[in-house]
Amino acid sequence: MRFCSILLLSVFAVSFANAQSKVPTADDVLKPVYAKALKENKKVMVIFHASWCGWCRKMDSSLLDKTIKPLIEKNYEIVH
Questions:
Q1: For the whole model, what pTM was predicted?
Q2: Looking at CB atoms within 10 Å, which of 22, 40, 65, 71 has the fewest?
């Protein structure tokens, strides 16, 4: 019983601590990227992904591939 109480208290403490962090708004994330893209005459690529998603990781590694990276850097500002 004591173990269950400690476990529940730990879960509550962790969830409470995570709930206190402020999530940035879309404007907070996108405004600087749009400003930089406008200044450098580039397009903005917004990538929605999850850390656990295999296809998302594949997309990120594809964008870093040496054959495509110069083209991407020349034409796009990327924001996750």
A1: 0.63
A2: 22
